[in-house]
Amino acid sequence: MIESAKYIDVHAHVNFEEYDPDREEVLSRAKEAGVLMINVGTTLEASKQIVSLSEKYDGVYGIVGLHPTEVTPMNRFNTHDFEPLVAHQKTVAVGECGIDVYRLDPAENKEEYLRIQEEDFRAQIALAVKYDKPIMIHARESYGKILEILKDCFSVYGTKLRGNAHFFAGSIEEAQAFLDLGFTISFTGVITFAKQYEELVRFVPLNRMLSETDCPFVAPVPFRGRRNEPLYVTEVVKKIAEIKGLEFETVRIALLNNAISAFKLQ
Ligand code: NI
């Protein structure tokens, strides 16, 4: 359906149990509106589910990886387990991977958890580069650390290291640092109700921006507080056009094409 697509949600979790009662309807509502979607893995199990969804549905792609909050001494990123999922034809990136300081359990050994999160982040970067796929970055109170790791990896991999900073909530300077590394930056429905994103949305060039929902979380206005779904990415596109003061069609087409080229969708 890529030829007839109008929108894309580059970060969804339609594999989550929130969709168990009506997943088929959620997927068909998106398809009818021309919304492509990329479901993003958080665990090995979730990543397997995502690959099955990609295999089953047209216009549905997958990203596989281990979310930083899932990394524990007992649950590490295992390249051997993930490699066949990464190699899959409809897997378009590795992630979501990164560092999450915010949700670290105070009862745990913080230094140890940060160390293993970093190791697993680097392992996922290496696997993405090996398969010439980008990474989908999750960051929470960790932009400085993530940029430091990316710069270090960039010195080894060069432009083979590509990716997107998902649910971007950093500063203008941090956004610029991601852009300098060649990364794209994506925004969710949070921009429809949180004013502090306006400056960022104005700052990031349209040709370096991607649209996402992060559903089932952060439904945009007018669906705020309800379960989110990929169809609602249309509200994110509208808001980006409004903030940037551009024609809706210009923004819609740019965001779709940016994602098709960033993830080499076909
Ligand atoms: Ni996510």
Question: Secondary structure elements and their pairing?
Answer:
Blueprint (H helix, E strand, L loop, with lengths): L6 E6 L10 H10 L2 E6 L3 H13 L3 E5 L14 H9 L3 E10 L9 H21 L4 E6 L2 H15 L5 E3 L6 H9 L3 E4 L10 H6 L5 E3 L21 H12 L3 H15 L4
Parallel strand pairs: 1-2, 2-3, 3-4, 4-5, 5-6, 6-7, 7-8
Helix pairs in contact: 8-9
Bound molecules: nickel (II) ion (NI).
Nickel (II) ion binds next to loops.
Written description of the protein model:
The chain is of the alpha/beta class and 266 residues long. The protein has a single domain (2-262), classed as Alpha-Beta Barrel (TIM Barrel), CATH 3.20.20. It has 9 helices and 8 strands. The protein has an 8-stranded parallel β-sheet. Strand 2, helix 2 (44-56) and strand 3 form a beta-alpha-beta unit. Helix 8 packs across helix 9 (248-262). The mean pLDDT is 97. The structure holds nickel (II) ion. Nickel (II) ion (NI) binds at residues 11, 13, 40, 96, 214.
